[in-house]
Amino acid sequence: MERWSGMDTLSQGLARRPEPGAAVRTAVRRFWPLTAGDRVWMLVVCCLSLLTALGETAAILLFGELTDGALREGDLDGFWTPAVQWLAVAVVTALLGYLGNSLAALLAERFVLRLRAAVFRHLQTLPPHYFQRHRHGDLVERLTGDVEAVEQMAVSGVLQGVSALLGALLYAAAALWLRWDLALATFLTAPLFLYAAKVLSGRMSAVSRQERRADGALTSVVAEALDNMPFTQAYNRERAEAQRLEGAARAWLRAAVRGARLDEGYRQSIEVVETLCVLGIIGLGAWEISAGRMSLGQLLAFAAFVGYLYPPIRSLGGLALTATAASAGAERLFDILDARPAVRDPEVPAARADPAGPPGAVDADGTDSPPGVVGADGTARTVVAAGPGAGKALGTGEPKSPGGRGPAAAPRLPARSGGGRLELRGVRFGYPGAGRSVLRDVSFTAAPGEVVVVTGPSGAGKSTLLALLTRFYDPDAGSILLDGTDLRDLPLDRLREHVTLLPQRAHVLSGSIRENIACGRPGATDAEIERAARAAGAHAFVRALDDGYFTPLAPRSTGLSGGQLQRIAIARALLRDSPVLVLDEPTTGLDASAVHHLLPALRRLSAGRTTVVVSHDMSVAALADRVLVLEAGHLAASGTHAQLLARGGLYASLQPGTAAG
Ligand SMILES: Nc1ncnc2c1ncn2[C@@H]1O[C@H](COP(=O)(O)OP(=O)(O)OP(=O)(O)O)[C@@H](O)[C@H]1O
Fold first, then answer.
1. Is there an atom of ligand 1 within 6 Å of 460 CB?
2. Spatial separation of the C-alpha atoms in residues 157 and 108, rounded to whole Å
3. Which residue among 337, 369, 394 closes a domain?
């Protein structure tokens, strides 16, 4: 199995420190494909920038004409023509500026939309341990703050850079045309701006990394504090939590102030350089005017050109800093994009791909994904989207065929009725990066219609076994077969249609009860939903609610009990109607009466299917055709509940009221 070289967030922050320029180049190279489809519009923005700069150049020349023709002479006749022309130029320039800036804002937001969708799509392919090893608040920050920071470099940065460059060239050309000798004297100062930016960019890079990390840590602390609020209140931990928040906020403040100081340092030193230049020009101009080689209008126009020339040069230097800061955000996105999914769809020749599979990955804005996106080696990757693992466009390499097998054609599973035979052959597995096997030589078979309960001491590997059955991971050795086909040879979406997981805590989606049940099989009719709810023992309490099936639920504010939510989850699983069911501690946290209501529903749910249940609950074990006892990763015993009890040993010791339970 391919190992994921995961490290925790902090150590990744400390790892590899490319120099700022290289980091920016890598980021631009990897994210640039996301601008596909908008590049023509980016060109339009650049053209509009050029036209705007031309308009401003014309305005300055008209200003010089106005000064010499009307102001110096005190002649109103010389005022009207240049004044009307100037006004016309100003209106057209304003219009072009409006169009250009609006279009640039649209392109920037579209890039954000695509980048976030691309990172999120890849995130959805990552295995459970990735989410265990990264704080959720930090991941939220990456999908929001870091994505926006990268945009500042990849789209806004490029557009502003091109526009600044065009403006600078144009104003420089105009200044040269007006007085080449004065212009050259002025240009000598330009490298000072870029030098200041270069000196600061090294420090900016380190500060930006700290700032991005501090942002992530702060969001994490807030998210965790909100999640833990009842615990915080019940244990009088308000002060401790407030201190934790303050600690994270202070770290963020320090990083933010350092960043602001660098920005401000750049801005203010540039102001001083600019003032020096302007004074120099006025001094030279005064000398030229006194020698009769220059008019006042020419001097003012020249000074205006130089006044226009500095902002683009300053902005080019500032952009170097913005890009350096953004590359710290980009590194945090690469951390996600370079993490490898633990499992991959089998390679299916395009012509043989199942037409019933989900459509190709589509951007959040409804447009097709650009074909190649941000592969670590910069190569384009094709979005195949043969299943829920369709984040392949962002992965870092093609999947290895597990166990050294070649590319596999995707076998079709049999229809719902009759199938569902599960077979484990000598399965060994250890979590990526953990370095030890959690399951060792596990072999058993579960036939259609059979209920197999897996039990054992805490940490024996029961939940891990379920993660393999639902193919969140592949075994390191051995194989798992569904109706004779290795799970690794089945498209993930097909596999997960055939194997339904009922997790320990019922998942609640934001939406009505009806929607929560219907997500088991999108498109289910009201009658089918009600039938599933009845079989799950949920119909009676749902109907008693004011809004019945339209009662809104939200992940943390359901207003339903744990047992009721579990029955909604059972209705969802019933509707899914898959041949294999995998249940993780379905009665955990429920009292005797809730379990009493749940068991008949579980019995109906498992009828005619292959059911594997992880449970410590004896009432669930009593439902089983066979009980498997896992101990330290291997199967220690198997038999019916009664047989195992009679045999004594580990199983008997697990029962409540016994010493080793
Ligand atoms: N993401 C992970 N990375 C590394 N090790 C893990 C990970 N998840 C679980 N483990 C380890 O794998 C072993 C088996 O864990 P598992 O959750 O499968 O046990 P379990 O039998 O389900 O326990 P319980 O009954 O307490 O839920 C444990 O030693 C655990 O520490």
1. yes
2. 10
3. 337
